[in-house]
Specification:
Helix content: over 70%
Structural class: mainly alpha
Number of helices: 7
Radius of gyration: 13 Å
Distance between the termini: 29 Å
Shape: globular
Length: 128
């Protein structure tokens, strides 16, 4: 895994903790991304251990090394993650808004990404 991919996953872990717990659908999405990013066994162990402790965007997300494309990828996965269990809580909605600001996107830039994530989450829920 690249350092940027690790940063993206750390951000997603913080988003997953938005409602105070990391539930099975959220954990499954993170594990799927570990596979998609071709994480080594060491990287996987490191990030799964990292995910055991409550994380926040303010305390645990450093964005300095992310390019705009990486930030867009993080936003897209975060939007999907907040809908992973079929509903978006107020806490998840709030942390997603904070992430949008931290990533430097306007609401207008983020809106189509979030809409697409909701659509994909709905389709995934229908299949499961």
């Amino acid at each position: 895994m690249t350092p940027r991919e690790k940063t993206i996953l750390r951000g997603l872990i913080a988003v997953a903790w938005a409602d105070g717990t990391v539930k099975a659908p959220e954990a499954g999405l993170i594990e799927g991304l570990l596979w998609a990013f071709d994480a080594s066994a060491e990287d996987e162990q490191e990030l799964l251990e990292y995910a055991k402790k409550k994380r926040t965007l303010d305390a645990d997300l450093a964005l300095d090394d992310l390019e705009r494309e990486d930030r867009a990828l993080l936003l897209a996965h975060a939007a999907l993650l907040t809908h992973a269990d079929g509903k978006q809580t107020k806490g998840e909605e709030k942390v997603l808004g904070k992430l949008i600001e931290r990533l430097g996107f306007t609401a207008a830039e983020a809106e189509p990404v979030i809409f697409e994530a909701r659509s994909r989450a709905g389709k995934l829920a229908e299949r499961v």
